């Protein structure tokens, strides 16, 4: 595969560093155009149709993809609850669904409850497949916008100290994030999670192979003053038993006391939605430049515009 061109995008490992920076450059262009309300360049995908197949709930991912396609001049078809309102209810396989929908569209964005579903879809599709989250597997467009946010906020993707906090066993965003961080030099990751929700051994093995340092730490306060990025995640109640959730709930909460210890130039990211793991007043979220998660969500639009143009543009 050409390291500067994707046919599908179903996992973070597909991205080369040169391609990442190419997508960043294009995202910067679209961000600048959107901010300036300069829409004359935003008809690059006129006549193209994006199909959105979401078998799990979504707000930011679905809306940002649909907004991205609209801003590029394309059209959207799809469903926000394909698990209930598609032929999956009748027992249709994901392969058959894709082989039908690819006749009606130029690109398919799929979110599915089964790990590996997007890769399976890509194996039979005649049009590009984009993974918008597959169970506990990956969420590669989220990780791309995560590192784009770090590049914008801090100015580098090497030599970073990053704390990943929360549900690291079930969090597909954290997993994809690690796959991309491993592509850059001298990053040092600290995993902070409940004992029953630790980062998987597959990710740890990947980081070891890419010579990326990591460690596990039970106490956020021990390392918070030294980190460049805090990546908070929620406890994914829907992917565990009630007993497992009660064991993990409320163990790691970021509050004003923690903010006092954080460096002025550090940034707090969160893939959202957040539940109770961040407890900061709204005025602090609006005024403190270290709070980056709403800018992070906004960046999803520009990254997804860049990705759609990369896959569908002439």
Please describe what this structure looks like.
The radius of gyration is 19 Å and the shape is globular. It has a five-stranded parallel beta sheet with strand order 7-6-5-8-9. It has a four-stranded parallel beta sheet with strand order 2-1-3-4. The protein has helices at residues 17-35, 60-71, 94-101, 117-124, 140-154, 172-181, 201-209, 242-248, 256-261, 282-287, 293-312; strands spanning 49-54, 75-79, 107-112, 129-134, 161-165, 188-192, 213-216, 229-232, 267-269. It contains eleven helices and nine strands. The mean pLDDT is 90. It folds into two domains: 12-138 and 300-312, Rossmann fold (3-Layer(aba) Sandwich), CATH 3.40.50; 140-297, Rossmann fold, CATH 3.40.50. The longest helix has 20 residues, at 293-312. Helix 2 packs across helix 11, helix 5 packs across helix 6 and helix 5 (140-154) crosses helix 11 (293-312). The protein is of the alpha/beta class and 314 residues long.
């Amino acid at each position: 595969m050409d390291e500067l061109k994707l046919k599908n995008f179903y996992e973070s490992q597909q991205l080369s560093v040169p391609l990442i920076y190419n997508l960043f450059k294009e995202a910067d262009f679209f961000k600048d155009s959107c901010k300036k309300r300069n829409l004359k360049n935003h008809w690059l995908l006129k006549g193209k149709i994006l199909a959105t197949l979401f078998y799990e709930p979504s707000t930011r991912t679905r809306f940002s993809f649909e907004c991205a396609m609209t801003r590029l001049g394309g059209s959207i078809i799809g469903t926000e609850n394909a698990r209930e309102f598609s032929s999956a209810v009748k027992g249709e396989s994901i392969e058959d669904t894709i082989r039908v929908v690819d006749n009606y569209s130029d690109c398919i964005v799929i979110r599915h409850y089964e790990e590996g579903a997007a890769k399976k879809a890509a194996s039979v599709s005649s049009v590009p497949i984009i993974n918008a989250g597959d169970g506990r597997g990956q969420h590669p467009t989220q990780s791309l916008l995560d590192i784009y946010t770090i590049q914008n906020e801090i100015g580098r993707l090497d030599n970073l100290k990053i704390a990943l906090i929360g549900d690291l066993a079930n969090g597909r965003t954290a997993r994809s994030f690690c796959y991309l961080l491993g592509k850059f030099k001298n990053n040092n990751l600290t995993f902070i999670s409940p004992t029953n929700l630790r980062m998987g051994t597959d990710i740890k093995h990947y980081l070891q192979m890419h010579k990326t340092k990591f460690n596990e730490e039970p106490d956020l306060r021990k390392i918070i003053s030294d980190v460049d990025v805090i990546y908070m995640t929620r406890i994914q109640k829907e992917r565990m038993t009630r007993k497992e959730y009660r064991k993990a709930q409320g163990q790691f909460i970021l509050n004003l006391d923690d903010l006092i210890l954080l460096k002025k130039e550090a940034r707090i990211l969160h893939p959202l939605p957040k539940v109770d793991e961040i407890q900061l007043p709204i005025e602090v979220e609006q005024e403190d430049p270290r709070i980056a998660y709403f800018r992070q969500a906004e960046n999803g639009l520009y990254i997804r515009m860049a990705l759609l143009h990369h896959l569908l543009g002439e």
